[in-house]
Each structure stands twice: as structure tokens, then as C-alpha cells.
Amino acid sequence: MKTVRVAAGQGFWGDWLEAPVHQVEKGPIDYLMMDYLAEVTMSIMMKQKLKNPDAGYARDFVPLMERILPTIMKRNIKVLANAGGVNPHACARAVRAVAEKLGLAGKLKIAVVSGDDICGRIGDFVSKGHSLNDMDSGAPISKIQNRIQSANVYFGAQPMVEALRQGAQIIITGRVTDTGLTLAPLIHEFGWSFEDWDKLATGTIAGHIIECGAQCSGGNCSADWQTIPDLARVGFPIIEAYDDGTFVVTKHEGTGGRVDLRTVKEQLVYEMGDPHAYITPDVIADFTTISLQQEGPNRVRVSGIKGRPKTPFLKVSVSYDYGFKAAGTLVYTWPDAVKKAKAGANILRTRLADLGLEFDEIVTEVVGLNSCWGPLTDIDSPDIPEVTMRVAVRAQEEAPVERFTKEIAPLVLTGPPSVTGFAGGRPAVQQIVAYWPALIPRELVQPKLDFI
Amino acid sequence: MTTVQLLEIAHARSGDKGDTANVGLIALNPANYPLLVKYVTAEKVKEHFRGICLGKVERFELPNLGALNFLLHQSLGGGGTLSLKTDAQGKTYAAALLKMKIQLSGGDKIAIS
Q1: Could you give phi then psi for residue A394, rounded to 5 degrees?
Q2: Nearest chain A residue to B73, by CA
Q3: Is residue A146 part of a domain?
Q4: What local confidence, expressed as pLDDT, does residue B68 receive?
Q5: Interface of chain B toward chain A, CB-CB under 8 angstroms
Q6: CB neighbours of A271 closer than 8 A, spacing ≥ 6?
Q7: What is the nearest CA distance from B86 to chain A, expressed in angstroms?
Q8: Does residue B49 lie within any of the structural domains?
Q9: By residue range, what is the domain housing residue A287?
Q10: Contact call for residues A366 and A379 (beta carbons, < 8 A)
């Protein structure tokens, strides 16, 4: 039976740099997929591109390719990565330059998927009656139109399938879905129809399982975490897909971590909405149809998946300027560490009020007590050895946030005793780029495919 | 009456979508899934997360995985980049749900795995 192996190399921009190297070197794979783009990543990249027209992509990707290019070309492993961000052509040129340095450029075919950037077309869409309402609040985009920093449509597997058909070795994309990076090779290899909804749903769920890297192979697992072996050398997941429409989740022999029903189930429910309708540009997948079976050590078979036709819309991710925020911290110790932290925060709040500063929100947390779970764990005890006071503020204007950052350190000499942890200096003011999810009729935006 | 902490019979993972947190709660032994369905209702979860979840709680059932999925609306201080919370993505809400205790009634018994 034909088998296709798709390996996950990165679960986000900033993930473990050794993982993709291990994936191509420690055992057989056919494809390496790497997900780099989170919702706000595009706006960071857009700012970089404004300063430098050759920037605006995941820079880590280029030195990584330099490390693995000789191996992937020798073993004919294809790479799919949405590392291109807002400048996939520049990313592809940088990879080609690296290939030339290694003397491997002659045979290398790099595909670029773009067309997802619709930032310059928002006004046109709005004037034609597409209000691009916020999917959460329902508000029309006109509310934030003058503050938009980036706007990108999520493409699915289709343009990457076309790139594979044309012989691409490396596919660098702008905004495509995480799941599409895994689904595309399966469509290509097995010749699935773009209307075989069950198969598309199967490949999509395979993609969902591995899109967060080791989070399905033992990382961040709440079941028996202390028994999971050798997380220091955790094996990233691999989908072993078969032409009967089933697949196995596994990892390379000799790597750390664990693939079992529990690790796979935890990843399946991660960021889940309505399990009956997991919507992507390719298909609507039904998570209640998934059947799991442990068929050997570190091998989980997935089968039975059903899908429904895709929707007539594509999702748009718009980022826009929202305002400013900062967070300051100080450490207080026994006795009465919690009381001291709360008193310190109250003094700080009083001073901010006396200065007449206006904030949209001020949040006080006592790290070590209630920062994650609020009232669920807010139980004071005089014996707690130490806690961290954390106060965070947000405002539309920069000035009040800037002034706030100067009010933390004074507490050391003017507030409760037994306090430390201010050596890092004043906290930084962060510009907030907010995220606006919307839908657009899919026929309005077409992906573009080039080879570099 | 038997009191059980969910940590003893379930595992969980949580994540975010805007200002909504999701918590997937999975029976360690699938035989205990019916207990989760019966006792871990949307109302109980809303009560458990009082002061954190300011919106409604939705519950979805996945009998094929022995799992429940909860959506906790308005739970992340605005969500994403706006949030001032340490845990702006609700990554630790899974563990917070495992802290919850349920009281079994009548003939309900825990299957030992």
C-alpha cells in the first residue's frame, strides 16, 4: 500500500530549532511542513517590511534551510512552510541565495504562493458592499479602517497542490492555513479530488494533529506528564498516510516523547470550537467522527473521518493599531508576602489616579497566588514565602502608559518592606496590534503561484 | 456520597480564540466519560470559573474521544494582544478545570483504569 510521510518541523515561529533537522535526519520522511504564522505575526512582519523592502518573513527559516538543504535534496524531501509572511518572494530569494552558496541551486525548484495580501484592497471591498464584519462582535470594518496595518486571506491547500504538481521542492507561502501544509501533499500524492470531502477532512485533521509540533507527541501533556520519556530529545510528530484514507500518527525511532491516545486526544481538542464544524478553506471537518486506535508503541491509527463541503467564504485576518500597554513587577517576601504585594499595587494605583492618568484597564495580579486563576486560588496565607506583584495597564495613548512605567521602581523605597526584583529597570511600553477576523466571498481573492 | 476531583479521572488541554477560551476535558478511562457528561455541565463549569469567565459557557460532546469541549466566552481579558493577563491565552485553564470537584450520587461508580 502506498505510504506518504509528512513530518512537522515547527509548531510556531520560535519553536525548537533542532526539530526540523532531526526530522530530516533521524528516519524516513517524504515531506516536511513548518508552521510559522500566528495571528499577529503578519503585522510584525509588515512593520519590518516597511523599514526594509527585503524583510517581512520568518528569518529563522533561511539558516535552517542552509542546514537541511543538502539532506532534503539528497533524499528528495519536499518542504512546505508559511515562512514567507508578508514577503514570500524575498524569503524565496534568500533561500535561493543560500542554495547557490552550497552549490545546490541548479536543481532546486522553489515555489512561492502569494496573493493573500489584500491590505490595499479593503477600501475597494468596502465600497462594493463587503463590510468585513468582525466575526466575534459583528462590528463593520469601517470602525478601524484608518488603523489597519495588514490584511491577509487564509488560503487552503489548493495553490500548494498546484506547486507540487509543477515539481516544487520547496514551497514558501504567505498566509495559508496550518492544516493546508499537511493536506496539500496528501491530495497531491493520492490524487484526491478537491470535492472528496471525507478525504479532505482526513488530511485536515492530520494537519491539525501535527500543526503544533510536539504538542501531540508528549509536550504540554497533562496526562502522566512525569512519565513521558526524554522530553529533552522529544520527537516531533509524523503523519504516515495511506491511500485507504487512514493515517498513523508517529515519530522517529529513538526520539523522546510519546505518541498515544492521550497525547493525540489532547492535541485534537486544542483550540477547538464546535467539534462538528472545523472550518477551513478546503472543507468542514467533523471531529465527532474521528476514530483512534493504538496500534503499537508510539503509533496511533486515525480513521473514519467525515467531512462536508467547504463554505463560500475565506477567512481574512486584519491587524490594526489598538493602543499601548505595559506591565511592571516587584517581588515581595514573607511575612505577609501577599498582603505586601496587594498593598504595593494599591499604592501604585493611587499614585496613577493622583496623577490624573487615564487607562482603559488596570489589572493587578499576585504571581504565585492568583495570576492565572484569579478568584479560584486567591487564598491568602501569611506563610507564603514569596510572591510577585504584577500590575499591567492599557491605554489608547502612549503617554499615560509611559508614565506608568516610571511608577514601579519608586515603590521599593516608598512602599511595603522586604521587596526586590527591580534590577531589570523600567518595563517597556508595548504597542498593541489587535486582530480583526472577518469573512470574504472566496471568488474575490485568487492565489498566485510563481517559481524562483 | 463520593466526591471526586476531575484530576483523578480526566486530563485536559486549553487554548484561545479571541476572548474565548476553550477547554477540552478527556476521560482518562473512556468508561468514565458518562460521569463527565452527567456531572460536568456547562452550568457547573460557569460556576467554577466565576470571576474569570464573564460570558456564557457552551459545552460540546465528543463520545468518540471520551471528551467534552467547553467554550468559555469573555474569559481572557479581551484576548490576544489586548489582554493584560499573565495567562492571556488561557493555557492554564485546563488545569484549573481539573481542580473542580464533582459529587457522585446514587449508584454512580468510578471505573478504575
Answers
A1: -140, 140
A2: A136
A3: no
A4: 98
A5: 11-13, 15-20, 22, 24, 26, 28, 48-52, 60-67, 69, 71, 77-78, 80-82, 84-87, 92, 94-96, 98-99
A6: B15, B16, B17, B22
A7: 6
A8: yes
A9: 3-116+154-311
A10: no
Both A10 and A76 in a single domain?
yes
Q: How many CA atoms lie within 13 A of A326 on its CB side?
A: 19
Determine, for residues B24 and A272 on separate chains, whether the beta-carbon distance falls below 8 Å.
yes
For residues A84 and A30, membership in a common domain is answered with yes
Chain mean position to CA A386: 34
* Residue B108 included in any domain: no
Do residues A213 and A191 lie in contact, with contact meaning Cβ atoms separated by under 8 Å? no
Q: Note whether residue A193 is domain-resident.
A: yes
Residue B113 pLDDT class (50, 70, 90 cuts): low
ipTM above 0.90, yes or no: yes
- Residue B96 sits in which domain range? 2-102
- Find the angle CA(A364)-CA(B86)-CA(A347) to the nearest 5 degrees: 20
Task: Name the 3-class secondary structure at A323.
Answer: strand
Whether residue A272 is found in the same domain as residue A336: no
- Considering its fold, how many domains does chain A have in total? 2
**In the block, residue with C-alpha cell 473512556:** B30
Q: Are residues A212 and A94 in the same domain?
A: yes
Residues A15 and A162 in one domain: yes
B29 neighbors B111 (Cβ within 8 angstroms): yes
Extract the residue ranges of chain A whose pLDDT is less than 70: none
